[in-house]
Design goal:
The chain is an alpha+beta fold. It has 11 helices and 39 strands.
């Protein structure tokens, strides 16, 4: 479902809803010969597994929807401008090929012959002229429609159900190279029938014109297309739509990761388009997004308006070493090695025998994430070459693959049993113990470590720790070492003091080490670390809707205080209402959601009435969890809108941080508006 007006209108329900309202049951797609003004379709060939040489690596390109939706700026000039930028900014050279239109390119009605008509305002020269322009740049052109009577936009543009052969022929005649086929207004017709019919129509059109068309199935994973679509399309959506926020990206990532066995050359899992550069996440989060999509061998379809993109956005999207992971011709999707406590290790086998390894931190604080060369599938060796794909630097490791990963960050490396490992300096791991939370004016003791992970020693090692202007950072033990052998570490004690006037919030400390290899090669490692200036929680019982939080993530819009989640804007919620009961206080969230509070080991209990808010009607399913530091202290089963609020309480004694977590209950996050009603903290 595209979020045009409100998220209340859900894509996942459109087909069933339409069938119910119209009284349509048992509808089957019209035979191609009965389509308006369409000659009888040729007999469709048999349907073996697709072996047409298309999409042998995941498609890369652009789709306008995430940045423009159906606004007037989506037009011929914009599409041509994107093609120009692909060439001028090096994206074409990096591997991006497809410039794809999404919904709203057509007029709402077909012509008298049943043909699709491009919007004359948006595309005054027609679609073929735009396709020709894109092709002249050495790029490819894509288009959109839906496997229903209408597309997903509320304006009701014509879908292809019952017009598959006619529409496919138009697309081929226009020079289309890629079709995204959505799932709205499907009238309850069997998904396999609808998508197979368009496959056959595209094949027929390709045969008549000589133009092959990559086929993207966009049925949101409702009917598990990974189990049946390998001989139907070249890629298939595995989830609902992505939104430009951490919670949405994380939820989709978790749904797509377990499907690694279904992906391969010519048949890819598609966790939806990229949000990189749209502004709803940090640079660290966007690098994680791009890293994880690449290690999952996902299609890389840019969803930001490149005409106004920052250099940081181009740097992320244009990272050729990360793109090479996505485009590796072996075609393996990365598999999960471990995921304990939100510390993920995902490894992808590469054609040259190396492994791309993502150390992904879903949590809100820096975490040590570690694995080994053997655990990710590499053969035994004296040492390995480890290439950091964001720092663009190579190191040697004795076998440990480890890093302190910033909150919501990803370290992406490529590791190989390379006989030339010794030419690289040893990898080192930087870590900080303590200092996650500080109170203004109060000194805090912390310890840093620089650990040699390499087969060779690190020499002339020096470490520094710095904070924001006005902070005092003082070393209390040596900051240098002449040599740090393999597996050993330089430990340094520090005192960190924030100004007494420092407002509560997050601040960055920078941990940096410089060193040399035995051969004299100078190396440097830098880790940005987040610390929080906090205020001790008040004594007594307080409403969590009124207390300051450390951090929040949310699947749709911001977390709301004392109202429901509402829509995507801040402050647009409604009274917290669960099964008809209204609550004046609490938190309105949307799965996947996390709300963190500093409790400073001074609190005892958290209590709340939890449930799915009534603003979503019959939709939504949410599970609620209370965490005390790294321990799950209480949780519910999956709750739905049909259920009354459930009392949830947890003993959080001794916890420094309490986290309120709302998950999607194992399905996607559509309509998952959860309420922490009457949520209270006792200290």
């Amino acid at each position: 479902m595209r979020h045009l007006l409100t998220r209340t209108t859900r894509r996942r329900a459109l087909g069933a809803l339409a069938a119910g309202l119209l009284g349509i049951t048992g509808l089957t797609a019209p035979a191609p010969a009965a389509q308006a003004a369409t000659p009888a379709a040729p007999t469709a060939p048999a349907a073996p597994a697709l072996d047409d040489g298309l999409a042998l690596t995941p498609p890369m390109g652009f789709n306008n929807w995430n940045s423009t939706h159906c606004r007037a700026e989506f037009n011929e000039e914009m599409v041509k401008g994107i093609a120009d930028i692909f060439v001028d900014k090096g994206l074409k050279d990096a591997g991006y090929q497809y410039v794809n239109l999404d919904d709203c390119w057509a007029r709402p009605e077909r012509d008298a012959n049943g043909k699709l008509v491009p919007d004359p305002v948006r595309f005054p020269n027609g679609i073929k002229a735009v396709a020709d322009y894109v092709h002249a740049k050495g790029l490819k052109f894509g288009i959109y429609t839906s496997a229903g009577t209408k597309t997903c936009n509320s304006a009701g543009f014509p879908g292809a159900l019952g017009h598959e052969y006619s529409d496919a022929q138009q697309f081929a005649d226009w020079g289309v190279d890629y079709l995204k086929y959505d799932n709205c207004n499907n009238q309850g017709v069997d998904a396999k029938l609808r998508y197979t019919t368009m496959r056959d129509a595209l094949r027929a059109a390709s045969q008549s014109t000589g133009r092959p068309i990559v086929y993207s199935i966009c049925e949101w994973g409702q009917n598990k297309p990974w189990e049946w679509a390998a001989d139907v399309g070249h890629l298939w959506r595995t989830t609902g739509d992505i939104s430009d926020n951490w919670g949405s990206m994380l939820s989709i990532l978790k749904q797509n990761l377990p499907l690694d066995q279904y992906a391969g050359p010519g048949h890819w899992n598609d966790p939806d388009m990229l949000e990189v550069g749209n502004g709803g996440m940090t640079g660290t989060e966007y690098r994680s997004h791009f890293s994880m999509w690449s290690v999952m061998a996902a299609p890389l379809l840019i969803g930001s308006d490149l005409r106004s993109a920052s250099e940081e956005t181009f740097d992320i999207l244009g990272n050729k070493e990360v793109i090479a992971v996505d485009q590796d011709p072996l075609g393996r999707q990365g598999a999960v090695v471990s995921s304990e406590g939100g510390r993920w290790v995902v490894a992808k086998e590469m054609k040259d025998g190396s492994r791309a390894v993502a150390l992904f931190n879903e949590t809100g604080s820096a975490q040590r994430i570690a694995t080994t060369a053997r655990a990710v599938g590499l053969p035994a060796a004296d040492a390995y070459t480890l290439r950091d794909l964001w720092q663009h630097k190579s190191y040697n490791t004795a076998g440990t693959i480890s890093a302190t990963v910033p909150a919501h960050g990803t370290v992406l490396v490529r590791v190989s049993a390379d006989a030339k490992w010794a030419k690289n300096p040893p990898a080192v791991e930087l870590a900080l113990d303590g200092g996650t939370f500080v109170e203004g004016g109060e000194p805090v003791a912390v310890t840093t470590s620089v650990t040699d992970l390499g087969r060779t020693p690190a020499t002339r090692v020096s470490v520094s720790l710095s904070g924001p202007a006005g902070w005092t950072v003082r070393a209390n033990s040596p900051t240098t070492a002449g040599i740090v052998p393999t597996g050993r570490a330089l430990h340094t004690k520090w005192t960190v003091t924030a100004p007494a006037s420092a407002p509560a919030g997050s601040y960055e400390l920078t941990l940096k080490a410089t060193y040399r290899s035995p051969g004299g090669i100078r190396a440097e490692s830098v880790v940005p670390l987040t610390t929080s200036v906090v205020v001790a929680p008040p004594s007594g019982t307080s409403s969590l809707g009124d207390l300051p939080w450390l951090s929040t993530t949310n699947g749709w819009g911001p977390v709301e205080r004392n109202t429901s989640n509402g829509e995507s804007a801040a402050g647009d919620g409604n009274p917290l209402t669960i099964n008809g009961v209204v609550y004046p206080e609490g938190l309105g969230v949307h799965a996947e959601s996390t709300v963190e509070y500093y409790t400073g080991k001074a609190c005892e209990t958290v209590t709340a009435q939890v449930g799915v808010d009534d603003e979503e009607g019959a939709e939504g399913s949410v599970a609620f969890e209370i965490w005390a530091d790294g321990t799950k202290a209480a949780s519910t089963d999956v709750l739905t809108n049909a259920q009354a609020a459930q009392a949830l309480s947890a003993d959080v004694s001794g916890a420094q941080v309490v986290r309120l977590v709302a998950t999607d209950g194992g399905d996607d996050i559509t309509s998952d508006h959860g309420d922490w009603a009457d949520a209270r903290l006792t200290c």
